[in-house]
Amino acid sequence: MDRLIYVAMSGAKQVMEQQSTTSNNLANAATPGFRAQLSAFRQVPVRGGDGADTRTFVTDSTPGSDFTPGAMSQTGRALDVAIEGQGWLAVRDAAGREAYTRGGNIQMTADGQLTLHGRPLMSDAGQAAVPPGAAVSIGSDGTLSALGQGDPPNSIAVMGQLKLVNPPEATLVRGDDGLFRTASGQPAPADPAVVVVSGAIEQSNVNPVSNLVNMISQSRAFEMHMKLLQTADNNEQTANQLLNFS
């Protein structure tokens, strides 16, 4: 069989995966705190029996994420927070492990539990919680303060401090749920230098225009590989006809 088929097939497969990454980025262009996924490819020479390269396939290299901070949008909502500069908010995932996110649209359940993306938000004392129905304020260091309904303004109580971490970006791995975790699986230590901005949300760092351009380019690249497969098939049919006539 023509080697061209395998070369074109490996290229088409990787372009399809690249299109999937671009589609996911576009789908999360409005997701607060989302970090764009990156994809990269490398060539893999195939060596023959005599040690010489016979062809070159394509495979994906280690995928990564774009950790460039997104634009900060002021919302005025007391439970909305954004990280200024580097840092992450800690949550507990579905398996009970610690994970990290930049999306700061905090929600409060009926019993006063604070959550992010439906996951429990972590504080220095475990899951973050306040009295149900209390007015909550969040300081620049992540301090949680709550004022109960009907209480005088001077009775504000400190309910703990959000767990803010800042592990090296190279040690972070994105999970299928969109949350980041340390490659070692161990919780990152709290970092007191992380600064929180209350009443704001960090937008996704995805550039929709550039990703749409990438999608068009990837579609054309996929069509090119399909054309190569068709050319290889035509060559095989022509060769078979010549053999039949010989």
From TrEMBL:
It comes from the Bacteria. Residues 51-72 are annotated as: Disordered. The keyword Nucleotide-binding does not apply. The basal body constitutes a major portion of the flagellar organelle and consists of five rings (E,L,P,S, and M) mounted on a central rod. The rod consists of about 26 subunits of FlgG in the distal portion, and FlgB, FlgC and FlgF are thought to build up the proximal portion of the rod with about 6 subunits each. GO terms for biological process: bacterial-type flagellum-dependent swarming motility. Pfam families: Flg_bb_rod, Flg_bbr_C, LlgE_F_G_D1. GO terms for cellular component: bacterial-type flagellum basal body, rod. Residues 82-146 form the Flagellar hook protein FlgE/F/G-like D1 domain. It comes from Pandoraea terrae. Residues 198-242 form the Flagellar basal-body/hook protein C-terminal domain. This is Flagellar basal-body rod protein FlgF. The gene is flgF. Residues 56-72 have a biased composition (Polar residues). Belongs to the flagella basal body rod proteins family. Residues 5-35 form the Flagellar basal body rod protein N-terminal domain. It is found in: Bacterial flagellum basal body.
